[in-house]
What we know:
By secondary structure, the protein is mainly α. The protein is elongated and about 85 Å long. The N and C termini lie far apart (88 Å). It has helices at 2-49, 54-76, 81-95, 97-100, 105-115, 121-135. Helix 1 packs antiparallel against helix 2 and helix 2 runs antiparallel to helix 3. The model has no long low-confidence stretch (mean pLDDT 81).
Amino acid sequence: MKTLLISIFCSVIFMNNGFSQAAEEKQRLKYEAEMEQKKKEYINDFVTTLKVDDFQKEIIKQQMESYFEEFKKINLLGLQEFERRTYVQNLDDSHFSDLKAMITEDQMSKIMNALKGKWDPKEEEKKKKRKKKDKS
């Protein structure tokens, strides 16, 4: 009788543990999908503010998306802070080398600011409103 109760108890605990792991995995996947969507929106919003042609916009989008993927890989390596900074600096220096020939230095600095999280879409909207107001 004791062994039956112990085995039932252990079965319930293991089943409960399995369900919680499945729920955590589902929540993680949902979070990753949400973050991917936000990343795409951020990139699209940023690229629309640049004054470049459609071909250049598409290239910039692709370069930014691949940059974020490489950045994510670097963060997943579990490096110490100074090593991680070195890898990120190398990524910053080398990843956009072919793009630098296509766009101006000002546009490149805007892209780097956007990659570092220094670009604010709300600030961009304020600038547009000020320009419209000044033209009137």
